[in-house]
Amino acid sequence: MIYPEAITDAATIGARPAIEWQIRGHATTGIEFYPIIQPTWQTALVEKISGYRSLPQNWNSYGSPPPSPVAIQEAIWFVTSMLDEKKPRPRVTPVSGGGIQFEWSFGERQIEIEFLRDGTIEYLLADTKTNDETPGRFDRPSRIDIGRLLSWLIDA
Amino acid sequence: MAGTVPTIRNFGNAPVIETVLSIQFKPIPGFTIPHFGLYWKVIREEFKHCENKIPIVHMIEDFQRGPTQRSSGIDLELSPERAIRYWFMDHTRNTFIQVQQDRFIFNWQRIEKEDVYPRYKKTREKFLEEWEKFCVFLTSENLPTPEVDQCEVTYVNHLEYTAGWDSYGELSKIVSYWSGKASGDFLPPPEKVNINIRYAIPNDQGRLYVSLQPVIRTRDAIEVLQLNLTARGAPVSSKTEDVFNWLDLGRKWIVQGFTDFTTDEMHREWGLER
Predict the structure, then answer these.
(1) A1, A2, A12: which to substitute to probe chain B, counting the most B Cβ within 10 Å?
(2) How far apart (Å, rounded) are the C-alpha atoms in residues A55 and A67?
């Protein structure tokens, strides 16, 4: 049993909403962390993204650097803050240039969200039935923004 | 005495990355949202940054039934006043004060590896100074003195894999309770381990919570073993001296609890004073 009371007023380093969600109402600390013993797909993704830190230079044999620390940090923030168990699980891959990409596919529609090396977030909505491609950029997406994209995906 | 700190053995190189001293009181009647701004004006020269946070629930260590969450009395059903919490941070963001209608909290956190843990004595002195300033502010606004019902001390430690151990199969190198031995040879070494323990502080003075869990630290995406120790209980009275006596007790339980919970091997790594 986990005693929620043991998780207290700490708040390590500017806890963001979803991180605070884990410790809602108990967090006196500022520490921002993600527990990785729970059996969820988010946990698996966080561990996977954390593991990109150890990718070597030229990991893809095309001279690419590994994902940058900023891209890794932002991608983990995205998984822990913007996604939850009720949302479809994305496929996550490192991409050349030091970024990380999230992909969702459903029927003829596909969404890609890429965290670039400098932390910039870009997305692409693609519909193979109509050949439409809609690119875009997020300053900082909200859960509502992500909810809209995922609704578009399954709304074909 | 509110001004003196009992001596206990310290660690020269403790893995602590955050300490929290917290005083919880009954919601102060008349402490409304504008008072947060007025209070910030008092401390703003030092605590320049401000962030709004989700309020913390009112927690009481109840020795009849175990720990309980209680309504703070400031929820919407009882009061039109919205429960809020603010962080007021200094320019380094290492140190911040948290205020809500029923709590006053002081945090120190390590942001950069080079940040030096200021030690309890210094943190306590600063907290005492800020608490007294807060009480003076309340008086100046014709608000009542807080009726303190709980005190709380929390230390968060991050144990990195390279510092004396490198897998959960070696957890017995860190945790003195953990034998690491199975009855048979079927199970492999554990992939991850999560430990939660609760201790009663004698004479219903409070409880100590110890929690050990693997986490990804989001600021650098490194997996660490996070060891949290929280002591919580009620002071004898709301007098500043009694409140700080309880905080000293909580800190003693945390430091001595940490020492008991971890191994001699790690104590050497962390420089336990002899």
Answers:
(1) A12
(2) 8
CB contact under 8 A, A9 and B20: yes
What global pTM score does this model have?
A: 0.84
pLDDT tens per residue, range A75-88: 998 998 888 888 88
Q: Torsion angle, CA of A12/A16/A17/A21, rounded to 10 degrees? A: -30
Neighbour tally for A136: CB within 10 Å: 12
Task: Check: CB of residue B253 under 8 Å from CB of residue B169.
Answer: no
All structural domains of chain A: 62-154 (3.10.450)
Q: Where are the beta strands (DSSP E) in B10-102?
A: 16-25, 49-53, 58-62, 66-70, 85-89, 95-100
Distance from CA of A117 to the nearest CA of B (A): 15
User: Measuring CA to CA, how many Å separate A35 from each of A39, A70, A127, B118?
Assistant: 10, 20, 36, 27
Is the Cβ pair A73, B105 closer than 8 Å?
A: no
Residue with tokens 């320049």: B48
Q: Is the pLDDT of residue A15 over 50?
A: no
The pLDDT confidence band at residue A16, using thresholds 50, 70 and 90, is: very low
CB contacts of B221 in chain A (<8 Å) are: 49-50, 53, 69, 72-73, 76
| Residue B77: pLDDT over 50 | no
- Please give the interface size between A and B, counted as residue pairs whose CB atoms are below 8 Å apart: 153
> Distance between CA atoms of B59 and B71, rounded to whole angstroms?
9
A contacts of B94 (beta carbons < 8 Å):
none
For chain B positions 37-96, those within 8 Å of chain A (CB to CB) are: 51, 53-57, 59, 67, 69, 87, 93, 96
Counting every residue written for chain B, the total comes to 274
Is ipTM strictly over 0.90?
no
Q: Which residues does A74 contact at the CB level (< 8 Å), separation at least 6? A: A115, A119, A121
- 8 Å CB contact between A33 and A21: no
Q: Which pLDDT belongs to residue B63?
A: 87
